[in-house]
């Protein structure tokens, strides 16, 4: 019955693995997502086309397929010897960036057109208008969907376990190989995921409240 | 409808600052600006009036290229409007714009609204920008609201902040796109007074408005637009006492009835 305590080191390693994998991919996804959202609303047609292609391609591809590409094609063509951890981050980060981009874009669309017009009429460039005026005002609308995207990312990171990245879901396989009751193991793994996802939604709720006060 | 040949009696010998030459623009099937020729001299106050849908707001917005034009040329201070990009941004910094709906940056304080352009576009040091911003806010009578957010101010106060924000850039010309149309009646005058003061200080202004009182007292020239054309150009006295075109007569009779 003491699966957790007997194998605490293994659980802890998986738990930290999932947190690290999620956090790193989240940073990559946020940066990429915001940049691509900028592309999608930019006045330059090639950038808009690139943004649209990026989202269409990544959002409509099964994540497992992206993992297969990341683990079997990317090392072959581009970066031989890249660590499985980084390959996992790439697959998760790119995939999630498409969703982040669309959430950010919908946030941008909620900001009144007049705000951007006022910024442009002061002589701000497109980049300044976006980063100083539009994005800060879009943030509040984007927080709620972003929370869901980050929770989904946490759970999606389980796929990396199947590609021999150390993370929480992979723990289950090791333990069942060792002959433990799979139901009990699953319960502990699920609980560990809940700890992470509840923390994420709590953080985002806090952020949402902070931004509300700022008005 | 008769059209009267347009005379440019007030432009005179003064140096032209904004020149629109044969400007045309369509919104789909609607020909919203038709062969617009307009020259605005340095220091001149031009008031554009006309029925709604006549294209006067669009005209105002083409001057800093918030609206693109289909044909013709617009030059500001001798330079034709460049295409979207850094050059255009630079030119826009010299053309102040005041909007009907104020468009103050909602997430910035009043003071930040007035300093932002100076700091980010003109690269003015922060302390200097704040000093100038406070002077301008005092000048338009909202100096004591500097640390509030736009939403905490009345419409009239917001519009005066918007004027200060535009002035902070040291513009060559100020465009006013129906600056009082979204205001409660008791707040219109406080904004008009600021504009009046600006006009008397020699600022070049293009003002789209329905405030005939302002047109009478502050304008050097009234431009009357209808259906995408400039139908009549005259001094305020001439225009209000003796409009030449039927369209203008009709318009004036409607608005002066009550």
From TrEMBL, chain A:
Per the UniProt record, one Pfam family is BPD_transp_1
Q: List residues traversing the bilayer.
A: 15-39, 60-79, 85-104, 142-165, 185-207
Q: Which InterPro entries match?
A: AA_ABC_transptr_permease_3TM, ArtM/GltK/GlnP/TcyL/YhdX-like, MetI-like, MetI-like_sf
Q: Which residues form the ABC transmembrane type-1 domain?
A: 15-204
From what superkingdom does this record's organism come? Bacteria
Intracellular or extracellular location(s): Cell membrane
Keywords for this entry? Amino-acid transport, Cell membrane, Membrane, Transmembrane, Transmembrane helix, Transport
Coiled-coil regions listed in the entry: none
Q: How does it sit in the membrane?
A: Multi-pass membrane protein
Q: Which family does it belong to?
A: Belongs to the binding-protein-dependent transport system permease family. HisMQ subfamily.
Q: Report the protein name in the record.
A: Amino acid ABC transporter permease
From TrEMBL, chain B:
Q: Any idea where this protein resides?
A: Cell membrane
Q: Supply the SUPFAM superfamilies for this chain.
A: P-loop containing nucleoside triphosphate hydrolases
What PROSITE patterns does its record include?
Answer: ABC_TRANSPORTER_1 (PS00211), ABC_TRANSPORTER_2 (PS50893)
- Please list the GO terms describing molecular function: ATP binding
Q: Does the keyword Membrane apply?
A: yes
- Alphabetized UniProt keyword annotations: Amino-acid transport, ATP-binding, Cell membrane, Membrane, Nucleotide-binding, Transport
Concerning InterPro entries, the annotation shows: AAA+_ATPase, ABC_ATPase_HisP-typ, ABC_transporter-like_ATP-bd, ABC_transporter-like_CS, MetN_ABC_transporter-like, P-loop_NTPase
Where the protein is mainly located, per its record?
A: membrane
* SMART domains noted in UniProt: AAA
Taking every annotated instance into account, which residue ranges of this chain make up the domain ABC transporter? Answer: 18-252
Q: How does it sit in the membrane?
A: Peripheral membrane protein
Q: Which family does it belong to?
A: Belongs to the ABC transporter superfamily.
Q: Can you say what this protein is called?
A: Amino acid ABC transporter ATP-binding protein
Source organism of this protein record? Streptomyces durbertensis
